[in-house]
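Our consortium's second objective concerns turning raw sequence data into structural hypotheses that experimental partners can test. To show how far this objective has progressed, the report includes one record in full. It was chosen at random from the queue rather than selected for favorable results. The single chain below, 147 residues long, was entered without modification.
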Amino acid sequence: MDANVAKSEDLDVICALGEELFPGHFYRSSTIRQIHFLFPSLFIVGRENGEPAGISLGVLAEDRTGHILAMGVKSKFQGQGFGKQLLDSQLTAFERKGISVVSLTVAPENRIAKRLYLSRGFVVVKLLQDFLGCGRHRELMMRKSGL
């Protein structure tokens, strides 16, 4: 898989893939476009033989902490190391900006994603009750690199 910084012409692909990966819970197209306008080098698109395979969308918080808003790989590409490649590309994009602390949230029951994040140095910081609405809890995970 090739994981590269997204260009403006990739935004429709990001929106379609995001809706496929997170049905009913992904950002509106206008929101994706505005966030990309602010953080263009932190949007990563993964492709396998030209086909969109996954996305990772990063932003910067006020305290200069990086945050991964969304990351996912299409089901047909899962289990092939694409998630690791996307995450590594995202972390590299943050490091190029001098960002050493990165956070993300993950569904507590998503053991596969949590295992990936733990393998890349993330630790669970706390449970965020109802973070995405009633009964939709998330775990906040953080990672500090040794820039």
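The partners drew two points from this record. The mean pLDDT is 95. The longest helix spans residues 82-96. Both points have been shared with the crystallography group to help prioritize constructs.
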